[in-house]
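To: structure subgroup
Subject: Chain for Friday's discussion

All,

I'm putting the inputs and outputs inline so they're searchable in the archive.
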Amino acid sequence: MEMLVTGALPDPAFWRGKRVLLTGHTGFKGAWMALWLGRMGAEVTGFARAPDTDPSLFALAGVEADLVSIIGDLRDLAAVEAAVAKADPEIVLHLAAQPIVRAAIADPVDTLASNVMGTAHLLQALRVAPSVATILVVTTDKVYRNAGDGHAYVEGDPLGGKDPYSASKAAAELITASFAATYFAPCGVKVATARGGNVIGGGDFSPDRIVSDIVRSVMHGSDLALRMPGATRPWQHVLDCLSGYLLYAERLTIGDVLPAALNVGPAPARAITVGELASRLLAALGKPTDFAVRPEARSVEMTTLAIDASLARRELGWRDRIVDDDLIRWTADWYGKVLAGAPARALTLQQIAAYCDGEADRVAPVSSDAASPPAIAPVSSSQGSITP
């Protein structure tokens, strides 16, 4: 039996019965996180805006069944305070954000309000939360001042942000550190930030993301166009990223002395370009591997981006487990089967179980027939699957 790369995993016994406030539970990463926490027996309250894509993993996988779902806006301090009071959390996982670079360029003020003031509102509300022990704020690999030289950034490198999204997340880092030092450290509350890489995996339907753009081209039988096929990113599977977040929060809560910020990204390897990722995923879905190139005039997106997660590997014993060909295979497996009518909830939980059990061969390759539906019809959470 083929096994996944070994490494520390979150402990279900630790999470069982823990009261967790999860922001962003209606998003791509947040939905996966909610299902994983539910599988471990955590008592989760989610706070987020309604899903902004149709379909969404939140609806397809029936995530609302696994938690107390509060639909609200981080920009509304009163709503945030009410959610914190209702959840009475021991652990807070702050994943909510406006995460799309091009959306931030189109509307920088909304992104700043969500990512900067939204984080400040949450931290302000948590100042009076009686049971909170640990707050983990998730930012991004884009928080660093990127010189475009291919340097793999480490936690001590200067923060920056050439575009509004990157700047908003760098600002969230500074705000979190200031609240930690001023309010939470004197009370013994652990506060940290996790800087995740470029996450891929099943269930992402967001606009302007490479995997969801590929899937839409498959669903609708349309041509794929890439803006920057030569760009490189630190690609990692959503389960690897979330595993790092959970381990970090777990270890902080039990009292381990850890850095206040950790990169959570893939091990150093040959850089995979956007074009190569697209071709490999199209091939895995049984589709032609060609694409058009349509550069965007005056783009501020960086050509190269890399982070060094050695500190997380050393401090947490964590490492990415879905690597190389498996990264493409697990992603294609989810989309191919769901497009063919498989229930998204069962498939997502199956991948979580396979990840935790270390069994790579429980994810089978997708046949070309499984990915052949030409279109997709949005469905409600009660249906649980995508139908052509």
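Points worth raising on Friday:
The CA atoms of residues 100 and 209 lie 8 Å apart.
The chain has 13 helices and 13 strands.

D.
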